[in-house]
Write a structure and sequence with these properties.
mainly alpha, Growth Hormone, Chain: A
Length: 456
């Protein structure tokens, strides 16, 4: 095999690494960000994470359609460039508004490049080497997830939260330069001119999720029965209905309505959205608990969270084969409930006199194993019944469901922690209990996932 396929792999996998690293680094830096903007409310600051998740989810489906028109190489490099430039803007942000706006752009860039990385890698390898390439590409994402908390803590400890964003700028610039030289200029999957994707539909979807997240995050500050909160949540419902009507009536929607009428696809995506909400709320809650309640430094918190990322990486390789052998439904339910058990362990184990090893670590490890296995099998279930010709959009839909859940989870946590009742520790205990209860709802939702015939 020549060196060129591996150069293509390096350039494309760099986008996967940067996107996954950013998602796992920023929660560790969040407490330091709040100290830099003491006059901003928690609801407003939550948009540093929520805005990224909303934009990421909104960009996924249009990115695939744009790649069909413009070519995978061009769209991937545009996304990587946006991500890199936005990282620099985040680092330079002088106010909360600029930081949130830059995070929106960064999310668009990440959502554009993420679904195209593997599509660029596979054509560069012969059939015999593709399995190895897929395995290494998966390992890159797992490595970024495992290293993220520790890297974030190290960077924040060295020079504050801005260094977290500066760190990705040279990496992104090198990836763009290498990608410009080595990524193929003619894409095998390019369909020619065709139609532009339904950008209005994408805007309606993003606005609906954004309005729901804004209402959840700011409801505590505005008042849950205030006209602002009720109007924002009502707008989210109206925009969702508008997206559904547009999807049903236009000739070339982002998501073919017939795909969502497939019950296994619909159920698995609902479960992914619910679990994404719970998982990302827990990730941010754990990081904030360590830094704001136990007064860990960012580096200490990053190192304390790393064991969870490591066991999650190992569990991700078990979930898929277990789902194939015993059925995605069974493994999804067991994994989701295991995740909930870890949340209960956190709520019950982190009292005033508890320590990290006995009070926090067991719940972290159990919830991490459950979350990784659950995501593996739910993602598999989401595409299991998708027609072969629509696997690309089916895969993008599953990632979109998870991203929408993330944005709502970040916003919901901000609303929960904004309540002063019982003090800071009580707020995190409420969060862990609510997430644990939510896992039961998710497990019930997963009962309709179709179970295929077990395989050896």
């Amino acid at each position: 095999m020549s060196g060129r396929p591996w150069a293509v792999f390096g350039a494309a996998a760099a986008g996967t690494f940067l996107g996954a690293l950013d998602l796992n680094v920023v929660p560790v830096a969040f407490d330091d960000i709040t100290r830099s903007f003491p006059h901003a409310t928690l609801g407003a600051l939550s948009w540093v994470t929520t805005g990224y998740a909303v934009a990421f989810g909104a960009a996924l489906l249009p990115a695939g359609a744009l790649a069909d028109r413009l070519g995978r190489r061009a769209v991937f490099l545009i996304g990587l460039s946006l991500f890199t430039l936005a990282s620099a803007c985040c680092a330079l942000a002088g106010g909360v508004g600029m930081l949130i706006a830059a995070r929106f752009v960064q999310g668009v860039g990440a959502g554009t490049m993420t679904p195209l990385a593997l599509a660029l890698i596979l054509p560069a390898f012969g059939a015999a080497a593709r399995g190895r390439a897929i395995g290494l590409w998966s390992a890159v994402g797992a490595l970024a997830a495992a290293a993220g908390p520790a890297v974030g803590g190290l960077l924040v400890g060295a020079d504050g939260w801005r260094l977290v964003f500066w760190f990705t700028v040279p990496l992104g610039a090198v990836a763009v330069a290498v990608g410009w030289r080595v990524l193929p200029r003619v894409d095998d999957g390019r369909d020619g001119p065709g139609r532009l994707p339904d950008l209005l539909g994408a805007a309606l979807l993003a606005a609906a999720v954004g309005a729901a997240a804004l209402g959840l995050a700011s409801g505590g500050d505005w008042g849950w029965t205030s006209p602002a909160t009720l109007g924002t949540l009502g707008a989210a419902v109206a925009l969702s209905v508008g997206f559904g009507l547009r999807t049903a009536r236009i000739a070339d929607p982002l998501i073919r309505p017939g795909l969502l009428r497939l019950r296994p696809v619909r159920v698995a995506n609902v479960a992914l959205l619910l679990f994404g909400l719970l998982y990302f709320a827990l990730q941010l809650a754990n990081a904030l608990f360590l830094t704001s309640v136990w007064d860990y430094t960012a580096l200490q918190a990053g190192l304390a969270l790393t064991p969870g990322a490591v066991v999650a990486t190992a569990a991700s390789y078990v979930g898929g084969p277990a789902g194939a052998r015993y059925g995605n439904r069974v493994i999804a339910q067991v994994s989701v409930l295991l995740f909930g058990a870890g949340c209960l362990m956190l709520a019950l184990g982190t009292g005033p006199g508890s320590g990290y090893v006995t009070g926090f670590l067991p719940g972290l490890l159990v919830s991490s194993v459950g979350s990784s296995a659950a995501f593996s099998v739910l993602a598999a279930a989401a595409v299991e019944s998708v027609p072969a010709a629509e696997l690309g959009i089916g895969s993008a839909l599953s990632v979109t469901s998870r991203a929408i859940g993330a944005s709502l989870g970040f916003a919901g946590l901000a609303a929960l922690l904004a309540s002063p009742a019982g003090g800071a520790l009580a707020g995190y205990h409420r969060a862990w209990w609510i997430v644990a209860v939510g896992t039961v709802v998710t497990a019930v939702a997963a009962t309709s996932i179709r179970r295929p015939a077990p395989t050896a």
